[in-house]
């Protein structure tokens, strides 16, 4: 026997207790222990077996430490088959989470009981694979095809009450898993209940699988694992169980060999690694209970909403009582959304809006705040004025944070007497929804202030990424470059609509011009004017057709027109007929003869520009690791998760080929297509970005 599974015989009931903390992951020792425990129960003459998890959960899923390693026998499919085939009555008592392989194992037992708070799910598609231990064959037999397709293709978790309605769980009872499980087993034995192998249940009724496949593929924007899982469920309706299992395994192995799986695995691990910085190990954070937010517009209200929902008290500072009340209205509107979704109840809503939130028009109201975030207009002189006043009123040790998207945090910090207390906290709008938080570390920012920034991000449930100071930090600096690449392609012959369509087919949630309309064209207009005022390099290509849209009052969705016309609503994207003539006039003025672009060339150039600038960002230390760039683009810029991020995509494409393309395009535009030194170095050494991630982790 192995220590990962405890064995006990209580009368004629054998008890197998998972004891593999922290989440009873189904690693090799657990799998061996389950088989050995079952065999021992059969030898000992038991009539039934109870399987439950010690600690916080039933089996929460696969052991992530085994990802990428050669499989060791017995595999989970064999364990599940062995449990289901046992002549004894086998029962699962579930608490915590039964996810992925954990739910597949539970489905291989004959009966299932759970505590009310238990959750179940099959999230394998989120890792680029599908349930591979019988989940696609057993779940449809107990829950029906439609419910199985929903759970498997979305990967969503369901609570015990819903799982019971679906037939996944047989009974719900409060109590300790061992006690409720033993009582259930005794009830079953007393009733002389039969073994109930799911594999022997009738095949479920089919649906129009071709239509479901097409719909799931479209919804996934090219991600193949959910759609492939549809075909596995289809096998449950068309084939005997054993053949269905074989088909599941065949499809599982197909997905195992895809770049999408590699991208999703990279995203999975990087998401967990991005907030772990060696330099913060052992660094104490500063107090973080009461915060101030300056500016109650869309961004400030979103930040305040996120803080309130995380249990912080918030003082919202505005210029006038009327503006403060308007800010409160925006925050209340955000919280109404949480109320409608069941995230909070009415009492909580009242507490957050009337007690946890305070309104102020005088900076003195921020004197006791532990941390203050300004979210005022993106203009350096405005920011400096705010920080001068914060320096005068905030208590010693208070963290002073700027939400700037582009501006120099060092310059902002320099107007205070305490630059060590100043940090950039760049939220993404809407701040209570978007997961990304760039934590911008200035030259003099204290380590404990950085640690406090990451602690705030964790409390707000953000993906926090460390960034250095430069124009645009990580995300907006890279955005500026790949957006410039798109603008160049437009000058040379592509249309905004072809570019958007090509990149959405690649997997982006929205193309760059649709995104610009959503964000507001005035933002880019302000950045272009600022950069021109600072002086553009004479070698840089520039264009003004987009400026004319803004000068005519067309700022995108908020004004009803931008690159697209939104007269029929924000989702009814129709090309604005004014745009192509403006582009044609620009080309004529610059003497450019337009040419055709294929969708493939559009994607290749766009992605190469993104990768090249990202390599500069990493090479300069603005991002410490390639994975920091990948997480920034995934969580802040709509990059398709199944591709892992731009630098993971680059590794999978091949760095040498990308560099060759960049060098060839540099012959026509040597200023824009300057190869990143880090990219050239990696190619010369036969290394890739993932090698840098591994070095940073070692």
Structure description:
This protein is of the alpha/beta class. It has three domains: 5-260, 2-enoyl-CoA Hydratase, Chain A, domain 1, CATH 3.90.226.10; 288-467, NAD(P)-binding Rossmann-like Domain (Rossmann fold, 3-Layer(aba) Sandwich); 511-584, N-(1-d-carboxylethyl)-l-norvaline Dehydrogenase, domain 2 (Orthogonal Bundle), CATH 1.10.1040. The strands form four sheets. An eight-stranded mixed β-sheet has the order 12-11-10-13-14-15-16-17, sandwiched between helices. It has a six-stranded mixed β-sheet with strand order 1-2-3-4-6-9, with helices on both faces. Strands 5-7-8 form a three-stranded mixed β-sheet. α1 packs parallel to α2 (76-85), α8 (209-219) runs antiparallel to α9 and α24 packs across α27. Keywords: Fatty acid metabolism, Isomerase, Lipid degradation, Lipid metabolism, Lyase, Multifunctional enzyme, NAD, Oxidoreductase, Peroxisome.
């Amino acid at each position: 026997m192995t220590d990962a599974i405890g064995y006990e015989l209580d009368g004629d009931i054998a008890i197998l207790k998972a004891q593999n903390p922290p989440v009873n992951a189904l690693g090799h020792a657990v799998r061996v222990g389950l088989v050995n425990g079952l065999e021992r129960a059969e030898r000992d003459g038991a009539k039934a077996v109870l399987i439950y998890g010690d600690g916080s959960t039933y089996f929460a899923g696969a052991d992530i430490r085994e990802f990428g390693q050669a499989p060791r026998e017995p595999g989970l499919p064999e364990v599940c088959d062995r449990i289901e085939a046992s002549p004894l009555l086998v029962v699962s008592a579930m608490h915590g989470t039964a996810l992925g392989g954990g739910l597949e194992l539970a489905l291989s037992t004959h009966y299932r009981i759970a505590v009310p708070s238990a959750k179940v799910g099959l999230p394998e598609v989120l890792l680029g694979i599908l349930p591979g231990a019988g989940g696609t064959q057993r779940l449809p037999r107990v829950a029906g095809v439609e419910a199985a397709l929903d759970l498997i293709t979305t990967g969503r978790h369901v609570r015990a009450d819903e799982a019971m309605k679906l037939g996944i769980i047989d009974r719900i009872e409060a109590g300790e898993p061992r006690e409720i499980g033993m009582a259930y087993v005794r009830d079953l034995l007393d009733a002389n209940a039969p073994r109930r192998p799911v594999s022997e249940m009738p095949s479920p009724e089919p649906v129009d699988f071709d239509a479901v496949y097409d719909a799931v593929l479209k919804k996934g924007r090219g991600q193949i694992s959910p759609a492939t899982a549809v075909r596995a469920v289809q096998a449950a309706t068309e084939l005997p169980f054993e053949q269905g299992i074989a088909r599941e395994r065949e499809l599982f192995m197909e997905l195992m060999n895809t770049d999408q799986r590699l991208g999703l695995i990279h995203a999975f691990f990087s998401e967990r690694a991005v907030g772990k910085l060696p330099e913060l190990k052992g660094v104490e954070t500063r107090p973080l209970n009461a915060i101030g937010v300056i500016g109650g517009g869309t961004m400030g209200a979103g930040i305040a909403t996120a803080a309130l929902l995380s249990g912080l008290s918030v003082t919202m500072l505005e210029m006038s009582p009327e503006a403060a009340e308007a800010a409160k209205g925006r925050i209340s509107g955000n919280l109404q959304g949480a109320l409608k979704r069941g995230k909070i109840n009415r009492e909580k809503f009242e507490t957050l809006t009337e007690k946890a939130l305070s309104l102020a028009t005088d900076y003195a109201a921020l004197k006791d705040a532990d941390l203050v975030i300004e979210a005022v207009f993106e203009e350096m002189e405005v920011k400096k004025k705010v920080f001068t006043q914060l320096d005068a009123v905030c208590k010693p040790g208070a963290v002073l944070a700027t939400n700037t998207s582009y501006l120099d945090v060092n310059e902002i910090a320099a107007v205070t007497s305490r630059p060590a207390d100043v940090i950039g906290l760049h939220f993404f709008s809407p701040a209570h929804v978007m997961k990304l938080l760039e934590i911008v570390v200035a030259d003099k920012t204290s380590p404990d202030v950085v640690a406090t920034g990451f602690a705030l991000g964790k409390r707000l449930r953000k993906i926090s990424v460390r960034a250095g100071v430069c124009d645009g930090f990580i995300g907006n600096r890279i955005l500026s470059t790949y957006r410039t690449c798109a603008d160049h392609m437009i000058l040379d012959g592509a249309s905004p609509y072809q570019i958007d369509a090509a990149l959405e087919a690649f997997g982006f949630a929205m193309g760059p011009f649709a995104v610009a309309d959503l964000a507001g064209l005035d933002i880019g207009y302000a950045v272009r004017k600022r950069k021109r005022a600072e002086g553009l390099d004479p070698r840089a290509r520039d264009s003004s057709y987009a400026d004319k849209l803004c000068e005519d009052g067309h700022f995108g969705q908020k004004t009803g027109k931008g690159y697209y016309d939104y007269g029929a609503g924000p989702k009814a994207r129709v090309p604005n007929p004014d745009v192509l003539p403006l582009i044609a006039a620009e080309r004529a003025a610059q003497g450019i003869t337009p040419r055709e672009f294929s969708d493939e060339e559009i994607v290749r150039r766009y992605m190469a520009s993104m990768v090249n600038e990202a390599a500069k960002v990493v090479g300069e230390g603005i991002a410490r690791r390639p994975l920091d760039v990948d997480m920034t683009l995934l969580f802040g810029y709509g990059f398709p998760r199944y591709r892992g991020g731009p630098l993971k995509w680059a590794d999978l494409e091949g760095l040498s080929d990308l560099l060759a393309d960049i060098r060839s395009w540099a012959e026509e535009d040597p200023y824009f297509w300057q190869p990143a030194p880090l990219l050239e170095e990696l190619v010369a050494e036969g290394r890739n970005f993932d090698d840098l991630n591994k070095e940073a982790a070692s």
